[in-house]
Amino acid sequence: MIDFFETAIEYYLTYPTWDWLAAARIVPSNTTQYTLSNIQDTLTEASGALPYIGCSGPRYNETDAGQGSDDNGRTVISEVWYYNHVLGRPQDGNSIPVNTTYTSTCAKAENAVWYYEPTSSSVRD
Fold this sequence. Notes:
By secondary structure, this protein is an alpha+beta fold. It has 3 helices and 6 strands; from the N terminus they run ααβαβββββ. It has helices at 4-12, 17-23, 36-47; strands at residues 33-34, 52-59, 74-81, 83-86, 95-98, 113-114. β4 and β5 (95-98) form a beta hairpin. The protein is globular. The two termini are 26 Å apart.
C-alpha cells in the first residue's frame, strides 16, 4: 500500500512554481521587478492553465514608479493558486488544468511586481 503522505507530497510537487519561473529567468530578487503577464505566461505554459496570482504590498499607483498611473494593483507576489477539474482524489493525478476565474490582484504595469528573495522567517517546513 502506498503511503498517503508520500502520495500527497508527490501531488504537490506537480506544481514546482519556483522551478518553472527560474527556467524563464524569473528568480527571487530584491533589486529586479517583473511584469505580471510574463509570470502568468510562464506558469500557464508550464501548468497547462492560467493560475491565480495574488499580490500584497503597496498599490502600484502609490509607489514612486507608479505616480500618475491608474494601475492600483498590488506589487508583491504573495500567492499562486492552480485550478483543476479532478476525478477522484487529487493526489491520484486524474485531473485537467483549468484557468482561474479570478482577476489577479497584482499590478499590470511593466516591471511593477516584486518577487522578493525569501528570508529565514518567511520559509516554513
